[in-house]
Request: fold
Amino acid sequence: MPSLPYVLIDVFTSNPLEGNQLAVFLNGDGLTTEQMQSLARETNLSETTFILPRSFEETKEKGHRVRIFTVNEELPFAGHPTLGTAWVIRGIGGADEVILDLNVGKVPVRFTQENNQPFGEMRQRDPEFGQVHSREDVARVVGLKVQDIADDVPIHTVSTGMAFVIVPVTTLSALQKLSFAYGQAQQYLDKTDGKFLYFVSRETVDPEARLHARMIFYNGEDPATGSAAGCTSAWMAMHGVAKSDERVLIEQGIETRRPSRIFVRAEKNGDHVVNVRVGGQAVEVARGELYF
Reply:
């Protein structure tokens, strides 16, 4: 039987068995969309990526072609798969910048050294701000009290390639107790411009962090959501939670016992937010072959 080599990598952490897991198939050439989706269900991780090899000339011109799948669907963009896949490609070629050609377009990931360890930072698309949501509506569908949702900053849909509804929760305690049936939330989201809900609190476990975050979706709870973190960076810059181009830490994954550290920054230029960057570390934990 033909075998497919893959790498298992933990993203937004420097510690094995923390952060968000990602399976990266090194050669998806010849696989159909249906086969990729089946393989993503087999790994049963938040996301699985497939690198589609190109010639040196085409890669230099267009970037590394990569497709991203959850257990249910193909995504145009996702953050931890972008950083993790770029990390794997860097390990093969050693480049300081890796450009991924995703369904949403080109996303560059630049690598530097911080504290004698590699640090990768992706630049996401400039954000698009969408619907402002009612506190009462969101509280009802996720089982929060209205007073559990902050009233000094809006519940806002933001997209840098994937649309997240950023929900500011007033206290760490309320966010830690958050529990709801995703199906009910999905019924609400289907009527809005948002794809997923991303909950944040300005009270944190780590005093160095600016926000504590959680993201619950159809495959459970995500330990780290880089695409949502990029949207949140834009939201913070727009609404004064962070200064323009100030790099801040978002902590996520603590409730799933896979703590993640996501570093974000964005620039506010007048009424616009640009130059959204999301960064962190990653660590390879396994290599193998899947027989198919």
